[in-house]
Amino acid sequence: MKKSLVADTTLLLVSIIWGSGFVATKILLDAGISPFYMMGFRFLIAGVSLGVIFFKRIKKMKKEDILGGFLVGILLYLAFGAQTVGLQYTTPSKNAFLTGVNVVVVPFLYWAVTRKRPDKYAFAAVGICFLGTAFLSTGNNMNFGYGEFLSLVCAFLFAGHIVSNGHYVDKTGPFILCFLQMIFASIFSFMTAFSVETLPSVITAQTWAAVLYVGLVTTMLAFFLQTWAQAHTTSTKTAIIISTEAVFGTLFSVVLLGELLTVNMIVGGFAIFIAIITAETKWNFLKFKKKTVKI
């Protein structure tokens, strides 16, 4: 089997894992685990696991690597904070699709940083995404609630995380940067939790199992698999496959949590999905390359 096919299949698995993560997080919130304690344990488990697996690489980190990990870790903490708190006030499907808006925002953040104007596909994606967000966020009414607002804030923060991650990864290396941002995000999460939250006096075995799943599977394993897969497939395929995360998030929410799938959600989710594909691929996969015949 070709490595590219294995990589594409792996990316699909990553999307499924991340889609399940929205439901797992919602279950933990409903079980009484507060957002920032959950994030603290999630990032701590992922960071320690990465540290053990890639110890030989990580022990070579330099002092200057710590600054990049610190800055990227702050953005990761803020993004997950907005996402997790927002999930308390909205459904996993809306949270998943609105979080996916980040790939549409990224080109415009690059514009602000590099002064390179986004192309027509980016502008088209923003228009489509705006319509999709309007449908998805309102559901059966016209209220744009606190949960939807935080989910959109999360999308912008994740866009900032992507930009900063891309800036520092070449200098620091993917494994060291991933490890550092997990550790710093865990520290910031626990600091916030100690200040504003209370850890439940009783945590069941099932709840700890869910925490381990979120930390080991949807965070550490998913990041590792994505890093490996992207080395063996194209960026176009990666964008298409990873963008299905929101679709799987909705499917898991409907099947496992019994969430009602409305017409507005279907239309809005499909529009955001099209916006993501437009922004990331520019529909190049539909263009057939002309073969040149040598005479």
Structural write-up:
It is found in: Cell membrane. It comes from Psychrilyobacter piezotolerans. Residues 8-137, 146-277 form the EamA domain. The chain crosses the membrane at residues 12-29, 35-55, 67-90, 96-114, 121-138, 144-163, 175-196, 208-226, 238-257, 263-281. This protein has 295 residues and is mostly helical. It is built from 13 helices and no strands. It has one domain (3-286). The protein is globular and about 50 Å long. The model has no long low-confidence stretch (mean pLDDT 80).
Overview features:
transmembrane, 0% strand, EamA_dom, 13 helices, mainly alpha, cell membrane, globular, transmembrane helix, 295 residues
Q: What order do the SSEs take from the amino end to the carboxyl end, as H and E?
A: HHHHHHHHHHHHH
What is the total number of structural domains?
A: 1
What percentage of the residues does DSSP assign to strands (E)? under 5%
Q: List the uncertain runs.
A: none
Number of DSSP helices? 13
- What is the CA–CA distance across the termini? 34 Å
Q: What structural class is derived from the secondary structure elements?
A: mainly alpha
Shape: globular
For the largest beta-sheet, the strand count, sense and barrel status come to: none
Mean of all residue-level pLDDT scores:
80
Q: Over the alpha carbons, how many angstroms does the gyration radius reach?
A: 19 Å
Number of strands: 0
Give the helix level as a range of percent: over 70%
Membrane topology: Multi-pass membrane protein
Protein name: DMT family transporter
Pfam families: EamA
Domain EamA: 8-137, 146-277
